[in-house]
Amino acid sequence: MKKNYRSLTKQERKEILNKYYQTDMGKINKNRFLRLLIYGILCITYSLVLIIEQLIKNSSLWNYIMALVMLIFGLVFLIGRHKLIIRSINYYLVKNK
User: Fold this and answer.
1) Is 81 a member of any domain?
2) What's the pTM?
3) Based on the structure, what is the number of domains in the chain?
4) What does each of the 97 residues of the chain score in pLDDT, given as a tens digit?
5) 26 to each of 9, 15, 33, 36, 41, how far by Cα in Å?
6) Nearest C-alpha neighbor of 92 from the set 10, 27, 37, 9
7) Quick check: is 38 in a domain?
8) What phi and psi values does residue 2 have, to the nearest 5 degrees?
9) Is residue 6 part of a domain?
């Protein structure tokens, strides 16, 4: 039977996550996941600052579109990070039964 990360209890998830981050690949991926989190938060924050600035200045539509695109990229970074974490931990669970 194939284990799935989502079907585990909260305590089991923490244990598996800690075991995964002890491996060599887990250490490398932890840095990558952290980088994706930082990029996503920076994109979202900067896009919100741009939107607020454009509301104050009453700028053109192009500036709103650029801020919206940056907001979408930030959300893609965060959602993609989450999916990559789930996929890599599922692979770890299957590999190390």
Assistant:
1) yes
2) 0.80
3) 1
4) 356 877 788 888 888 889 989 999 889 999 999 999 999 999 999 999 998 898 888 888 888 899 999 999 999 999 999 999 999 988 888 887 6
5) 21, 13, 10, 15, 22
6) 27
7) yes
8) -85, 125
9) no
